[in-house]
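Researcher: Going back to the complex we discussed earlier. I've cleaned up the inputs and rechecked each line, so this should be the final set. Can you rerun the prediction on the complete assembly and write out the structure?
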Amino acid sequence: MSDLPVLQNPYIVIQTTQAPYSTSDATDSLEAALAATNIGMQVVYIFVGDGVYQLLKAQQSTLISHKSIYKKLSALPMFDVELIFAQTSALTTYHISLNDISFAVSPISDAQLVQICAKATQVLVF
Amino acid sequence: MTNTIPTRFTLMVTKSPFDARNAHSALSFCAAAIEQGHSITQVFFYQKGVHNASSLLQPNADELDVYSKWCDLAKKHAINLNVCVTAASRRGVVDAQLAPEPNYANLVWPFTQVGLTAYFEALNNNSVNIQL
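Model: Rerun complete. Updated structure for the full complex:
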């Protein structure tokens, strides 16, 4: 298991756990992250479970008249959300690779996920 | 009353009142917390939770009137009932300013429309977050 990233300042965790378009959870978690960084909070954004489906670059959301969640996610670093992780076990289960992703997402084990959440000031799950 | 250190809680309610028991649980939590000497900084309604704020809710006679319970709680204990303006307007829960005509407003005091940042500002203020 690789070392945990150094997270020295207080931070909140936002877990996004749902696939991108069947519910509004993916959009809502993204908007929550942007609001938190807007007031200077440090946000750790984690794709958990079905949430890793949001990382599929080839999603063609225009077919269902929806803006691409992937494109919105790729703008996260521009809004100071730079600590972005994805649950390795979910990536493995759903055969999703982080290689094609155009923004930095680091895989974390379930144990690391727990450690990151344990040290957070708040954890929100969408 | 128990001998505990008073804690400030912020609640985030994310489910509509009649599709899930989250609102019931949130109301029970608020009552229990206040009873034990804690305080509720704000209840924030996000996602489908914004439906709790609609003054047009008409529950059946044998169901809990969640809207009235929230109003009673807010008035009795001066709790802020904050509703995410984006999530609410998407779902047709609007105050007089956003309604096409003021008479169509279904979001009225003690509920207030705020931005998501208001919720995170409360969290920054040493509040313990409860998400329901």
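Model: Worth noting: Chain B has one domain: 8-131.
Researcher: Good, that matches what I expected from the previous run.
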